[in-house]
Amino acid sequence: MAYRYLLGLFDDEVPLLDAVGKLRHDGWHIHDVLTPFPVHGLDPVLGLKETRLHTAGFVFGATGTAFALLAMTYISTVDWPNVFGGKPYFSLPAFIPIAFEVTVLFASVGMVITYYLRNRLSVFAHPEILEPRTSNDRFAIVFDLGKYNDDAGKLEEALLRMGAVEVKVREMNQRQRSHNEQSA
Amino acid sequence: MIKPFPEYYKLSPSVKTFSFVTIGVGLVFFIIGVLLNLHYPARIWSVLFSTNLYFTLIGLAAIFWVTSQTIGYNGWFILLKRIPEAMGSFVKWGALLMIVILALGSHSIYHWMHEGITNPASPDYDALIAGKKPFLNQGFFWIATIVYLGLWVGLIYLVRKNSLESDKAWDLANYRRSKVISMFFLVVFAVSTSTAIWHWLMSVDPHWLSTLYGWYCFISMFVGSLSTIALITIYLKENGHLKLVNDSHIHDLGKWVFAFSVAWTYLWFSQFMLIWYGNIPEETLYYRNRFESYQILYWLTFFINFVLPLLVLMTAGNKRNPNVLRFVAILLVFGHWLDYYLMVTPGAVGNAGYYDANGQAITNFGIGFMELGLPTAYLGFFVYVVFTALSKSSLVPINHPFVKESITHQT
Amino acid sequence: MSHQYYSPVRDPLILGNKTYAQITEDISSQAERGPTLRFMLAITFTGLIALMGVLAILYTIWKGIGVWGENKTVGWAWDITNFVWWVGIGHAGTLISAILLLFRQRWRTGVNRAAEAMTIFAVICAGLFPMIHMGRIWDAFFIFPYPNSRAAEGFIDWRSLWPNFNSPLLWDVFAISTYFTVSLLFWYTGLLPDLATIRDRTKGIKQKIYASLSFGWRGTAKQWQRFESISLVLAGLATPLVLSVHSVVSFDFATSVIPGWHTTIFPPYFVSGAIFSGFAMVLTLMLVARVVMKLEDYITINHIESMNKVILLTGSIVGIAYLTELFMAWYSGNLYEQYAFMNRATGPYWWSYAAMMTCNVISPQIFWFKGARRNVVITFIMSIFINIGMWFERFVIIVTSLHRDYIPSSWLYYTPTWVEVAIFVGTIGIFMTLFLLFAKYFPVVAIAEVKSILKSSGDQYIAAQAKEDAEERNEQGGAAFAGAYRKDKDQ
Asked: What is the residue range of C93's domain?
């Protein structure tokens, strides 16, 4: 079974932002928006929920600090206590650099892995591309024609009125996840 | 788009009342403290000196912030520009008081100024200090002090004068001039803060040295200054001024306070860890005095200046929240005052050789009337001077080429 | 959502009246084209130099560290000098992408991609040296702390042998490996959208390769939202990280009590020297790349001027640090400290001190002049000077401090052998080879980021804004808000 999508292509971010706002105001459900670069101010207009990636980063980082400090303390005071340069077994100032590095390592590696998983990015991911020019010079508003099959004409007319340079219908073999599903 | 419009601030009765009450109450406390401590001049003069220095350097670092932003082509801060510029006008008062304090009290603060220290025939002879005589001598100390203060006051006057002139008309030449003046200020600032810190602060413990000390003191004053800028911005905004300032400006100020609190910790740690690791007696002396006699206060500075901003200001939401930022900034202004106090007093009091009735050496007088009163009085004085300066011109530099960038600033 | 305003006083960062499509075309067509003859010649040349380095490394491993010129007191010389030099160069990329992002410097978008790649290659070259210096490189994994049986004395004793957590050399292991990992992740995560751009423009086997490389990036609103979030957090993490890395390198020296090494200013001074040398290397590479790859519209003279300003700033900080050290050596009253600095300037290695002072402190002062900052030839010469000067700085710190210890009978003059020289030159070959491969097959300028500043920094938009502003001022009679400045506060 094929999935059909209607794409309104814009050539700039300003009309795109206006159109997204107006279309949502008129009650249309926007399936997704594809852009060649991050468009400032799109998230609130589209109604995207805030990402929780940074919270994940904080949790990973805190884990790293705790792990590094506990491991170094255990090793230096319990497992194999050694005196280095007349310093106490538990010499906190000397542990700070490693604790810091491990914090950063855990936070960034953990966050990047989370990011790749959540965005479904991997060497093996070969998604179908709705419109190759959205990575070049086109900004696309995508509608699911499974939902709006009968309204395709109305949509096209509205998009063109709002400054779309082109409206396309594309048939895909895979279902494209909408922006709501992606944030779930 | 909203066009820039001039906004005028009139010194409000509440600010006047606040200033006069804090000055009055603070001075009463201070005088009580002085009367109780007439036998211990090192305590009195070191509090006066460190507090005066701290508020002067806050004003100076505010100008550093403006000039470095000017050189860095930053646009977002233009709406706030008049606040640090007004803070700079405290420096002339601070400089004046500095000369008075040093003229009367330097003998009580600086051990190396004592008679006979550099005289081999004297019983007080100190060979190490004698070796430093080309740098640590009264003549050079005074010339350098007057040169630093003179350069600062002069350049701050130029920075502010040029900025106020820009309100007259749209003039690109004025903008270009601001960059030249900023460059001169930055060069003078970069060299003179370090050398001034060596003269004024490092020589309080004349045997001790740390190459990082100048930069460490700079970061400390800079965080104090940024926190003050944030406090004044929030105060003015909440009282109906600075109408064009939005949350993004507050957010950016929060970022600066956060980032430089972390930078302060970085330098604090670098200096402490290297001295701890090297474990050379001449160097560890500085920390030993502070850890042994001022333990609670010393860790309090670390807690207020690092742990608090790190935990509280980490999230974007808290940086944007004026109430949270105000809370942190008030504590930071106090925390960095404490930092400066602990740079001077332990050394000055420790070297003065005071003994109590039982013959025990006094190394720490603790926080008393005078340590609470004097900063309070200075705060009132600072607020009065700065807000008076703010009322002298438009709060918005309407003709600055970046002012509209600042108005549309969004993060 | 109000429209953001950008002052026309700013210099344009994208020239040539570009559109989004032209930006894509200009940058990705470089990667899509096959290798040219010029490229093949260049990479053969650098590849041969790299090969020489690899052979010299193998020779060292085969024969042992004795093939180097190190002696009784100078146990660290070229290897650690090269290590610190390369790590320093590896600071520019992260600085540009992280710190300048936080300071809102938009010009960084033109150079950040190449600078980040350079960072990674420089850290690879840096990492080689401590590994070779270990002597028994096959035991290199001993430096990582993991439960092991190396300390076991029979069946009952289960304890592990751990590295020394108090040692700055172990901190280095953590700092450098963390820095390498984070830089690589940061760089590659930023590359994905641009690799997807190339994927969408190519066909056949190339498309398959770029499809895999781009990890299936689609550019949806949610992907971009997460992209921006992770970029900001990684920038926030990379900022203290980049400071920590060179600080930890400086701890290698400063925690010891050797005169000339034990000084508290080392951490920030090393960091600022690292940025100084990193920017010099970015300029050396980009001044060539922008001409060869026809990127003058994206890496403009305004970018070069901004980078020269950073060089002037960090160079001056380094200069102040040198003078602070000199002053404090005298002020300390410590005979050994005073001698160490005297010996640097006037001892047997005076020429390295002179080279350092000339290249790092004196000659960059030319950048006080706008004409010099905007002159490509002067900038290129200066960038080479700074690369040399910063190498000598590390040589001065390491070798001159070590070559005279407390027993005059062990005072020897260190000279490198051909093996050390070959390894050092070889790492330059490795670095250049990796950079050439990157420049050929990857988008060398961050396409998506450049597009995002087109409307604010493209020359045609700036010109339009300037016109609009001028008209607005004329409407109001020339001087907007004339008379707003008041001397009389009662007004």
From this structure: 20-148+161-458
* C471 belongs to a structural domain: no
Interface contact C229-A54, CB threshold 8 A: yes
Q: Does A38 touch chain B (CB under 8 A)?
A: no
* A74-107 confidence digits (pLDDT tens): 999 988 888 888 899 999 999 999 999 999 999 9
d(CA C180, CA C173): 11
Shortest alpha-carbon distance between residue C340 and chain B (Å)? 16
Q: How would residue C3 be classed by pLDDT, with cut points 50, 70 and 90?
A: low
Neighbours of C377 (CB within 10 A): 9
Where are the domain boundaries for CATH 3.30.70 in chain A? 3-50+127-183
Residue C480 inside a domain? The answer is no
Q: Which residue of C has its CA nearest to A84?
A: C166
- A171: helix, strand or coil: strand
Query: Nearest CB to C1: which of A41, A115, A126?
Result: A41
8 Å CB contact of B273 and A94: yes
Beta bridge partners of A167: A8
Residue appearing with tokens 């190449």: C114
Q: Residue C62: how many CA atoms within 13 Å on its side-chain side? A: 7
**Average pLDDT of the residues in C129-147:** 88
- Distance, in Å, from the CA atom of C460 to the CA atom of C277, rounded to the nearest integer, reads 34
Judged by a CB distance cut-off of 8 A, whether residue B269 touches chain A is yes
Rounded average pLDDT per 10-residue block, chain B, 411 residues: 82 93 96 91 93 96 95 90 94 96 92 87 88 91 96 96 89 89 94 93 92 94 96 93 90 93 95 93 89 90 94 90 95 95 90 83 85 95 95 89 86 74
Query: Which SS3 state, helix, strand or coil, does residue B334 take?
Result: helix
Architecture of the domain made up of A3-50+127-183: 2-Layer Sandwich (3.30)
User: Which two tokens mark B30?
Assistant: 């201070």
Nearest chain C Cα to B272, which residue? C264
Distances (CA, A) of B46 to A36, C7, C47: 61, 48, 65
Nearest to C325 among B187, B211, B275 (CB): B211
Neighbours of C58 (CB within 10 A): 11
Cβ pair C145, A75 in contact under 8 A: yes
The β-bridge partners of A139 are A10
Instruction: Report yes or no: C411 and C106 within 8 Å, Cβ to Cβ.
Output: no
pLDDT in tens, B341-391: 999 999 898 888 888 888 888 888 888 899 999 999 999 999 999 999 999
Output the CA–CA distances (angstroms, integers) from residue C2 to B1, C229, C347, C450, C466, in the order listed: 7, 22, 64, 21, 19
Would you state the pLDDT for residue C482? Answer: 39
- Which chain C positions have a beta carbon within 8 Å of A53's beta carbon? 226, 229-230, 233
Q: Which two tokens stand for residue A23?
A: 């279309």
Return all residues near B357 (Cβ < 8 A) that are at least 6 apart.
none
Beta carbons of C110 and C445 less than 8 angstroms apart: yes
**Residues C434, C440: Cα–Cα separation, whole Å:** 10
Pairing mode, strands A32-34 and A3-10: unpaired
* Partner-chain contact A93 B279, CB within 8 Å: no
Residue C477: inside a domain: no
- Percent of chain C residues topping a pLDDT of 90: 62
Q: Let me know if residue C3 belongs to a domain.
A: no
Q: How many domains, in total, are found in chain C?
A: 1
Q: Is the dihedral of CA C434, C437, C439, C443 positive or negative?
A: negative
* CATH number for position C47: 1.20.1630.10
Helices C266-292 and C78-89, packing angle to 10 deg: 70
Smallest CA-to-CA distance from B289 within B219, B359, B343 is with B343
Residue C476: per-residue pLDDT: 56
ipTM: 0.93
What is the rounded average pLDDT of the residues A142-164?
Answer: 87
Strand partners, C415: none
